[in-house]
Write a structure and sequence with these properties.
Blueprint lengths: L2 H20 L3 H19 L5 H32 L10 H15 L7 H7 L3 H8 L4 H9 L6 H18 L6 H19 L4 H25 L4 H4 L7 H15 L7 H13 L3 H26 L21 H12 L4 H7 L1
Helix pairs in contact: 1-2, 1-7, 2-3, 3-4, 3-5, 4-7, 5-9, 6-10, 8-9, 8-14, 9-10, 9-14, 10-12, 10-13, 10-15, 12-14, 12-15, 13-14
Membrane topology: Multi-pass membrane protein
Organism: Eophona personata
Subcellular location: Mitochondrion inner membrane
Length: about 350
């Protein structure tokens, strides 16, 4: 892709995100979401492969529908209350429509079908943007309207997302699809707590973004897309493969790694809100996700694949050290001991 064109698209992404997160008016927030959608489409389809074009088409149709629902929700609320302020979403029908629209934008169950397909058809660099930056504006809208949302509906969506995200990731061999279902599962953890402790949702999202960025950048560096190629990747950069193992376990939420912190605090908050059955169910459903994370981690450790592979083994390729990958990976592993400081910052 032309560097000038890529600069324009990345700048538009940042502009759309900034407009949505900083606006108080529904029309401005909607405009920011539309800028984001239009800016990411060329990045998805830049390879001109039929799979990439299909992914871009699916993404456009889904996001356009969700944006129309956001606008319809805000107009319904303005019709009944006379308010265009995002924080004044007081009409119950508008709240219900907005929850559905944001769920569609994020990929929460039952509006999740587009996300694994779009991520599978995108390059790893674009997949990183789809899994992190593109989730931020919708989560910001949920954060600003959290006091008006329906807790029962969000809890049901969250539990379904954790269940489907873990269940459907079990039989995948494509790493991008596994990370897509991982994202759906993590979004369930964010959705269940946003009404009771919105700041905890933001902290969960920041930590998830950091760990996902570390994994995507590492996979992009060692050029791995499938489990079969992950089994032979240890010969390229052995140290990076070892760090990928720890980052995957952190994303799974195993103590004493960083990813354990948000799950721990969310379960604690749900217990305080006397939602013990929901907390128990979310904890049990996280075991499904843990299984495919462990499978990925296992594939990074074995030195010989269990079956004949067509991949040529590369021996110690000379790659320059990437400071960003090293920093993100280290933070994804060792932040748990300084968690009190993270909580005071958030």
């Amino acid at each position: 892709m032309n560097p000038q064109a890529k600069l324009i698209f990345i700048s538009s992404l940042l502009l759309g995100t900034a407009i949505t997160t900083s606006s108080n008016h529904w029309v401005m927030a909607w405009a920011g979401l539309e800028i984001n959608t239009l800016a990411i489409l060329p990045l998805i389809s830049k390879s001109h492969h039929p799979r990439a074009i299909e992914a871009a088409t699916k993404y456009f149709l889904t996001q356009a529908t969700a944006s129309a629902l956001v606008l319809f929700s805000s107009m319904t609320n303005a019709w009944h209350t006379g308010q265009w302020d995002i924080t004044q979403l007081s009409h119950p029908t508008s709240s219900l429509i907005l929850t559905s629209a944001i769920s569609m934008k994020l990929g929460l169950v039952p509006f999740h079908f587009w996300f694994p397909e779009v991520l599978q058809g995108s390059p790893l660099s674009t997949g990183l943007l789809l899994s992190t930056i593109m989730k931020f504006p919708p989560i910001t809208l949920l954060y600003m309207t959290s006091s008006s949302l329906n807790p029962t509906l969000l809890t049901i969506l969250a539990i379904l997302s954790a269940a489907i995200g873990g269940w459907m990731g079990l039989n995948q061999t494509q790493i991008r699809k596994i990370l897509a279902f991982s994202s759906i599962s993590h979004l369930g953890w964010m959705a269940i707590i946003i009404i009771y402790n919105p700041k905890l949702t933001l902290m969960n999202f920041y930590l998830y973004t950091m760990m996902t960025a570390a994994i995507f950048l590492t996979l992009n560096s060692i050029k791995v897309l499938k489990l079969s190629s992950l089994m032979t990747a240890w010969t390229k950069v052995p140290s990076m493969n070892a760090m990928l193992l720890l980052t995957l376990l952190s994303l799974a939420g195993l103590p004493p790694l960083t990813g354990f912190l948000p799950k721990w605090l969310i379960i604690q908050e749900l217990t305080k809100q006397e939602m013990i059955p929901a907390a128990t169910l979310m904890s049990l459903l996280s075991l499904l996700s843990l299984f495919f994370y462990l499978r990925l981690a296992y594939c990074t450790t074995i030195t010989l694949p269990p079956h004949t592979t067509n991949h040529m083994k590369q021996w110690r390729t000379n790659k320059p050290t990437n400071i960003l990958i090293a920093t993100l990976t280290t933070m994804s592993i060792i932040l748990l001991p300084i968690s009190p400081m993270i909580l005071t910052i958030v």
